[in-house]
Design goal:
The chain is α+β, with helices and mostly antiparallel strands. Helix content is about 25%, strand content about 35%.
């Protein structure tokens, strides 16, 4: 029996690793691509709540701490059968209470933006998704003194430093989890690492992200490295709307697949640079 008229009847509890399959089902119900493995990774990295009605998980929301001052919020999903009943607000209020004292960032759908604005979030940018079956892509051509190489476990401090310079956040746990599940390439100039990107399984295929570089050419090379030799494979990249290589992605088979509104409640982190965050790990994790 639907409880649309009585959202207060739903029981909120902490999200647990055993909820991965239920989160996958919610994701698919709203047209999102998350596999159970993707949900399990997200649950393991963060905190959050699920809403249950008669023992069925009908809503979920999560947040991920980056240092002591900031966090991202995401995976806010309410079952289509129970939307419009206030469950989204209840889930968000629970997350805000859990993450109290932190500045929070999220990427909002157009449908979700009004709720987040009422809860104190303001828009500050846009994130665009590109995905598709990759066309034939040549290996990147690099300038003299620049090379791409596979990252090694010993490179973790360098990867963390570059990510911190680009994001302004302490994301060591996220990076370790991504590296455990995927592959990483570093770009070096005159023997000094200046950027990296990570490829892993996600959703319908593969995702490239994060992509960290200090110029557009390096960012394209860090994506082209993964596209080369993967003709016909489904790959996704989420980039900031101000990134300058959207047309380059389209020419290689990755078509526009919608956008979300980047929002913040509190202060945005200060990224010292010169490295920049060109591509996100995904829209929830940032």
């Amino acid at each position: 029996m639907s409880d649309v008229g009585h959202p207060e009847a739903a029981i909120l509890r902490a999200v647990a690793s055993s909820d991965a399959a239920a989160c996958e089902a919610l994701s698919r119900a709203v047209g999102w691509p998350h596999r159970a493995a993707d949900c399990a990774m997200a649950i393991g990295l963060g905190h959050g709540v699920v809403a249950e009605l008669s023992g069925e998980v009908v809503a979920v929301g999560m947040w991920w701490p980056y240092g002591d001052s900031h966090a991202t919020v995401g995976m806010i999903i309410v079952s289509p059968d129970h939307q419009g009943a206030g469950l989204g607000r209840r889930v968000m209020q629970a997350l805000l209470a859990q993450a109290e004292g932190r500045s929070l960032m999220l990427n909002a759908t157009v449908a979700g933006q009004p709720l987040y604005e009422r809860l104190g979030f303001t828009a500050h940018g846009e994130v665009c998704q590109y995905h598709g079956e990759v066309l034939e892509v040549a290996a990147p051509v690099l300038a003299n003194g620049t090379l791409l190489r596979a990252a090694l476990p010993a490179d973790m401090p360098v990867i963390s430093r570059l990510d911190r310079a680009a994001s302004g956040l302490e994301r060591g746990a996220l990076l370790a989890s991504l590296l455990e599940r995927g592959e990483c390439v570093l770009i070096e100039r005159d023997g000094r690492p200046v950027g990296f990107s990570i490829l892993r399984r996600f959703g319908r295929g593969l995702v490239v992200g994060p992509v960290i570089a200090d110029n557009d050419g390096d960012a394209r090379a860090l994506v082209a490295y993964w596209l080369h030799g993967r003709t016909g494979q489904f790959i996704r990249v989420d980039i900031r709307a101000d990134a300058s290589f959207a047309d380059w992605l389209i020419q290689r088979g990755l078509e526009p697949a919608g956008s979300v509104i980047a929002m913040v409640r509190g202060r945005l982190p200060v990224a010292p640079g010169p490295a920049r965050l060109y591509g996100l790990a995904n829209q929830a994790l940032g």
